[in-house]
Amino acid sequence: MLSFKEVLPLAQSQSELGTKPIGRLLFKLAVPTVIAQLINVLYNIVDRIYIGNIPGTGALALTGLGVTFPILMIISAFAAFVGMGAAPLASMQMGAGKNEKAEKILGTSTLLLTLLAVVLTTVFLIFKRPLLYLFGASDNIIGYAQDYISIYLLGTVFVMFSLGLNAFISAQGFATTAMLSVLIGAVSNIVLDPIFIFALNMGVRGAALATIISQAVSAVWIVWFLLGKKTHLRIRKENLRLTPALVGSIAALGVSPFIMQSTESLVNIVLNRGLQNYGGDLYVGTLTIMTSLLQFIMLPTQGIAQGAQPIISYNFGAGNAGRAKETFRKLLTVTLSFTVLCCLAVVLFPSVFARIFTPDAQLLGMTATVMPIYFAGIWAFGIQIACQITFLSLGQAKISLFLALLRKIFLLIPLALLLPRFFGVMGIYWAEPIADIAASCTSLVIFLVKRKQIFTRRETA
Description:
The protein is built from 19 helices and no strands. The protein is mostly helical. It holds the Pfam family MatE.
């Protein structure tokens, strides 16, 4: 139990993590985080909507933008590796009354994000063209893909900061501030996109420029907050060092969210190449649209889970396993309800969602045909994310890592390679729902088997 001396410096937003009713607390933390994730989706979706509606060349430009998605996801994955790996550690240290150690975690993460941004920018700028061909580009769309990614990569450091450091704001219970961090950038992107794309006639280059400027605005806001007086954890010069022990701890937890996002990139590569080989540019275009909608479902679901993460981590660190268990139960109910509703909407009204991205009749018709298949199992994703974020919040890195690998590496990629050999191009679309349902059911079984052992260990520690 924390002493009065330890508790006194903590702000009300921290102490509420251990005292406020779970339902209201989850709502308070999850709603702004979900809004932030929905806004975050707009960064890529708004670009795709505007580009897909460019007169004459919109369909090809949209397809070209789609093959850059693996690079975008790899950058986001490294940001998650640091942010999602370090934020639960910081939450647990705050729960134990050790804010000074939590600040060291923040300082190490800030420097690590900076170094990773420099490396990623350099590597992708050098090898962008062969990588884009590897990711499914054809001669018809390589120009659009290269134009977009060449500019986007110049803002890698802003993307890393806005995604990686914002997790530390959420981890302190400042969910509304974290939401505003994303909102500022997204609104900037929405305003700048039509100016650069249409008014200045920059096309896909304009979309990329609008995105990196918007990410820069968001990154500056986040750093300014973490240097200010309102935050409980502050970026301090003396903590900007790569302490091996802290880097190792961050990596142990960060590898799971890293794999979740980086394997999304690998999945996209496998699907794009399969669709290009078995179908052509038109089929690659359908995936560009559907991955945009998939983000619209998955990121808010992850936002709900991230809202629960500080509650679970804080109470687990404080020795209150009962509140951590209750948080999981409520989290599972909310995430599963959300994914079921999203599944019904997309499967029942595919043309409505496809029309947002393209007026091209051929691309629209094909997307509406395959969308109900591709999204048939997304309802089960709410189960997997609730289990995985709970394991991550409890410091169970190995289990969380296995669950991260299960859906994509062990199931989806093999299915996407195998099924089209028997069922043609449609087999690629069917791989997604089969993997979703199988992985989610497995995740739930593992959690039910392991939960008593994990919580009992903490309660008796």
